[in-house]
Amino acid sequence: MSSRSRQAAARTRDKWREKTWYQVLAPEYFDSKEIGTTPASSPELLIGRTVQPTLYDLTGDFDQIHVKIRFRILEVTGQQAMTVFHGHEWSSDYLRGLVRRGTSRIDWIGPILTKDDFLMRISVIVFTTTRSKTSQEHAVRKTIERIIRAHAKKHVFDELVQKVLLGDLASEVHEEVKKIIPVRECEIRKSKVLKGPEEVKARRARLRRGTKKE
Question: What are the CA-CA distances from residue 82 to residues 8, 53, 54 (Å)?
Answer without folding.
Answer: 34, 14, 17
